[in-house]
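Incident log, structure service

09:12 report received: a user says their structure output differs between two submissions of the same chain.
09:20 pulled the input from the user's history:
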Amino acid sequence: MAEWIGISRKARRAYGFDEVALVPGEITVNPDEVDTTLEIDGRKFAVPILASAMDGVVDTKFAIAMGKLGGIAVLNLEGVQTRYEDPASVLDEIAQATPEKATQLIQKLYVEPLKEKLIPKRIEEIKKAGVPAVVSAIPQRAEKFGKIAQEAGADIFVIQATVTTVRHLSKAYKVVDFQKFCKEMKIPVIIGNCVGYKVALELMDAGPAGLLVGIGPGAACTTRGVLGIGVPQVTAICDVAAARDFYQKKSGRYVPIIADGGMTTGGDICKAFASGSDAVMVGSAFARTKEAPGRGYHWGMATPHANLPRGTRIHVGTTGSLEEILFGPAKLDDGTQNLVGALRTCMGNVGAKTIRELQFTELVIAPAIRTEGKVFQSAQRVGMGK
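09:34 re-ran on a clean worker, output below:
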């Protein structure tokens, strides 16, 4: 599979969403009759799309709105929602900053200490609305925050870092034992982020209820530019999906994988599922909603890092309501609205009645998929030419 790139050095070719296409099926299905259900540890969700745990995307109000529509929104327990009693003014300040000053301002605002008392408060705000409360923290704070979140009634706990492995080495701080943590937690635990077959297998052995796949593909993430690491999402998802299927045969347990980042349109989301994903996590698509707390702005989770920011603030605008982004009717021509409708229609065209069947769709390498015959769209900057 690898090719020579220099003397004694090979590299494997990897693919992103813009380089592949899905082949229509030999049969087709009524889109209204397909099943898009996501199941995590026995709990079912009608919408297999998660909103990223990013401060410009999810606050308690957004989490409630997403939950009522059948999806999952992950609240970041280390962002402005748990640093400030009233984060509204902070979010206003971030939105009003100039591009040149945005990163410095975000770094300054995130120096404010985390207030543990706000964790149960935010969770209770979500739970009062009768929807699932899903929250996240980095591995170093997982044990402390996990217990607090669980006691407050959280439904799912997410451990998320730029790169997560079972065999993390550190003398400076205590390394979380994922296997022990997943066993002791009484609620499902999702772990991320990862790419790679072997790493995924080791993480699945730790007992999580789900695995996040993706390093650096997010719209507001600069990890790939700053650190040079990452694997294009189609290849990353395929590799981890292979690990999931092998792990199921070995253990009898199915661990859903969630493609995290790199998807801006319904087509990207469909390709993520066809590559083997059970669900997707997106940020910028939801940052555009009227319900998002970012006021039309979106910034990476690592943007506040004091010494080496691996994210930036981007302007995505506000294009519609959360319901329009998820279910339409779409008012834009670029595939960024009615994401569930796009998924259903795609499933119908490839003949997949379930997400599992969609994972076996034929893929072709198609570098011209976005440009073939689209001269006028590109010239006029409409549709796929934007």
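09:41 both user submissions now match this output. Likely a transient worker issue. Closing.
09:42 reviewer note: The longest strand covers residues 189-194. The mean pLDDT is 94.
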